[in-house]
Amino acid sequence: MLELKDVKKYYGLKPALGGVNLQLPRGEIVGLFGENGAGKTTLMKTILRLIRFDGAITLDGAPIGPKNITKISFATSEHSFFPDLTANAHRDFYAEHFPTFIEKRYQGLMDFFGLPRTKALRAFSTGQQNQFEVILALSQGADYILMDEPFAGNDMLNREDFYKVLLGILTERETVLLSTHLIEEVADFIGRAVLLKDGQIIGDVRTDELDDQGLSLIEYLKTSYHYQSDRVVKALEAMGEEKP
């Protein structure tokens, strides 16, 4: 289990994370939602120990460090690959450094996205680079796969097909933590939703519980974030425009 206990992160005097407590067992697809600046990316970077923080983050009871960091992979639209290397060169690098590298999954995902294997990554389009970042994260053989807005620049049909593939390839030991603003697209694919606001978790619910309550994920988010349905009308009135 991946566990966060009272995790705090400050940028100056401003808290980016204000004491987050979260447990992520294996075998889940978890959606991480929140407005820009809610703390989603900061949360993932603390798990990876890319930034300093207060509190404790453990994997199966042990702190994250050199002995277990390979059990966590990361896909981000910021990109973490070597731009001058080809896809095949990345594959060789990962296979050499990660004994759990899943060759069959890598080859299958490369075929699925139709990506060139002998072209340098800097020559890929932004969408292709994001796809390749996801391929590497899923092929590493990690138990926990963190994805931070991984599909920027990809069309809707491509994203929808990928979610279906994702459901088909994940094993019971793998957990995906997916941060995205594409709430409606992932609603049918995640099993749990975690909501962040101002660095605090304000909601944590399983999607089957929402189904039992007759609530959609969108409705749950709007209620949790106290969404004001009349905000557009009020804004237009304040600007002297006619109501839509």
Whole-angstrom Rg: 19 Å
Strand order of the largest sheet: 6-7-8-3-9-10
CATH architecture: 3-Layer(aba) Sandwich
Query: Terminal Cα separation, in Å?
Result: 49 Å
CATH class: Alpha Beta
Q: What share of residues is helical?
A: 25-40%
Q: State the major sheet.
A: 6 strands, mixed
CATH topology description: Rossmann fold
**Class inferred from helices and paired strands:** alpha/beta
Helix and strand run: EEEHEEEHHHEHEHEEHHH
Count the E strands.
10
Instruction: Please give the count of helices.
Output: 9
Overall 3D form: globular
Indicate the low-confidence ranges by residue numbers: none
Strand residue content? 25-35%
Residue-averaged pLDDT: 91
CATH superfamily: P-loop containing nucleotide triphosphate hydrolases
Count of spatially separate domains: 1
Walk me through the structure.
- The chain has about 240 residues and is of the alpha/beta class.
- The chain has one domain: P-loop containing nucleotide triphosphate hydrolases (Rossmann fold, 3-Layer(aba) Sandwich), CATH 3.40.50.
- Helix content is about 35%, strand content about 25%.
- The chain has 9 helices and 10 strands.
- Strands 6-7-8-3-9-10 form a 6-stranded mixed β-sheet, sandwiched between helices. A 4-stranded antiparallel β-sheet has the order 2-1-4-5, covered by helices on one side.
- β4 and β5 form a beta hairpin.
- α3 packs antiparallel against α4.
- The radius of gyration is 19 Å and the shape is globular.
- The relative contact order is 0.17.
- The mean pLDDT is about 90.
